[in-house]
Amino acid sequence: LCQEFPDVFAWSYEDLKGFNPNLAQHTIELDPNTKPVRQKQRPVNPHMEPLMRKELDKLIESRIIFPIKHSSWVANLVPVRKKSGEIRLCVDFRDLNRASLKDHYPLPSMEQILQVVAGSERFSLLDGYSGFNQIMVKEEDQFKTAFTTKWGTYAYKKMPFGLSNAGATFQRAMDMAFKGLINKIVLIYLDDITVFSKNAADHFFHLRQVFQRCRKFGVSLNPKKCIFLAHEGKLLGHIVSKEGLAIDPERVEAIRALPLPSHKKALQSFLGRINFVRRFVPDFAALVKPITKMLRKSMAFKWTAEGKESFEAIKEAISQAPTLINPDFSKDFILYAFGGDDTISAILVQQNKDNDEQPIAFFSQSLDDCEVRYSFIEKHVLAVIRSLKKFKHLVSNNKVQLLVSHAGVKDFLLNKDLNEKRAGWITRVMEYDIEIKITKLVRGKGLCEQLASKQPDNPEDEEDVVLLLQDDQKQENDDVSTPCWTQNMIHFLQTGMCPPEMSKAKRRYFRLQAVPYVLVDGVLFKKDINGVLLRCIGTGQVERILHEFHDGEAGGHFTPRVTALKIMKAGYYWPTVFNDCYSWVKKCKKCAFFTGKGRLAALPLRPISVDHPFMQWGLDFIGVINPNSSQGHKWILTATDYFTKWTEAVALKEASESNILDFYEEIATRFGVPATIISDNALAFIGSKITEWAVKNGIYLSTSSNYYPQ
């Protein structure tokens, strides 16, 4: 086939035929108010001059550039050394680009290109030879591309790299040349041409069609960079194959080799590199959360143990990223959505021939300060809405089975009693064909982590969806030795045999007792009355869990029964959980000190009587406001008239005495001097300047009682 079409390949600049001028020419339209710029010639390293001269001669012989005497636009030549030791001649077109009117012709979505190609049986990856140089610059615009050298001034006949609209011109030309074939057998991203076939038998026919278009429109290919009849290949920084889409191993190794960033710019660069592959990583936003916090202006750049752990965890997650399959639009999609404390995540999957679920893409996003305060159900619904929007280009015309871990999410989306907020959210979901299902729960693991890993052999376990709990992964790793109380149960579930030392009556009772217990990946779980699997905890971990759920951040010094129910709701179980909670609470010093103490009845409220408007004002601060306003304001100082309830407010950068005094005077000039001003005991309200001003104007300063303001 290549011998049949030898004219579509270029081995050097001399072989370039160039695009048919009727198909494409590059024009440079300038802002009429811009004045031409002639850059002064910059010095060049003498060792580079022979290489520059050699490259210039090649371009002149190939009729890509030509000498020019007069030009109002002149730029500088910038030689860039290649890995091979040769140089590439670039031109500093920044002044010309600033003056150019922008061409907004879009480049194809890399994500969509990769999804279309992945899953094909055969690929041919073709590369254009010096792609941009194949398009002519319109004759009247050629002088604008002039550049200066020590050997004279030259301009481009053919489109050079570096012009702001060059990419748009080239993409438009390629789209026109391969019109009718794009997304069917070929995909174009600038000079990267990917020919794909769902079966090998059709691939030669598809290649012939592409070569015919190249010949017709003058597109030249680089034979040294073309790959034919590949089962898999590298495309746009990814590996595409029949199995699906994977991260390029070279990119993975490059990320793994990155050192710990030493300053914020280096950290931003690292985040930019890993963001390129976030769709492969389950719960990406939660993994990088400790790192992204370090970029806040209010925080000093300092690596904490949590940040270092996050840095290594994200690199490890990228190295273990799964292969994403190509979506099959003849099948239904399955969407798992989950809302965490400060992030939301989702995974889009489809079932293969063996009914195993395979990931198509992962989604995750950090919540802002407002969204963090949403309820548990609202965060899950938000995860559904955002993930459907993210995957809209895939699921908009297909049925989606939406799997959520809580019945409240289904009630939220199907409830006919709508308030304004609920109605707005449900409207965004109505455009999709979704079927909501409630999944079984296995608590103590991460949603996306389970779905990304290999599916269990037991088909009943394939429906299990999991919730993320603090430190669970660490607990799993710590639980190397099997807890004593579970040994007999695990042995029975594995072998079906009771311990030999048990009596006949005890064996019968033991078999009944074992009914709700199951093994998942070698870990013992107990199924509660709702079908939720609770992880069985060993004796060595009981004290830690009791502390966490009664005394720790997750606790609140609740009663023994409430503490036990909280533990089981979080997904943990052991036979003596209620008795252990009773003993733990009984020994709790804070509970012993505060619980059951007699308290004096609250004094009756005494209303403050005011005779006329603006006689008595109450002042207070709101703040510190985080994040600050765009102008740096951190506080809001408010004043309320006790008679009319009229309120005044002012935004302040500092809660200083002078700012408060200015606010007092502003109120006095508009509403008259008050008789009384009431505030708390903040130093700014009772400073010497304010006290002096109050005495001078006959104002009584009243402050609330310390610790018990009423």
UniProtKB/TrEMBL annotation:
Domain Integrase catalytic: 603-710
Entries under InterPro entries matching the protein: DNA/RNA_pol_sf, Integrase_cat-core, Integrase_H2C2, Retrovirus_Pol_polyprotein, Rev_trsase/Diguanyl_cyclase, RNaseH-like_sf, RNaseH_sf, RT_dom
CDD domains listed in its UniProt record: RT_LTR
Reverse transcriptase domain ranges (all copies): 61-240
Molecular function (Gene Ontology), one example: nucleic acid binding
Cross-referenced Pfam families: Integrase_H2C2 (PF17921), RT_RNaseH_2 (PF17919), rve (PF00665), RVT_1 (PF00078)
Keywords linked to the UniProt accession: Multifunctional enzyme
Gene Ontology BP annotations: DNA integration
Top-rank taxon, per record: Eukaryota
PANTHER family the UniProt entry points to: PROTEIN CBG26694, PROTEIN NYNRIN-LIKE
Designated name of the protein: Uncharacterized protein
Organism: Taxus chinensis (Chinese yew)
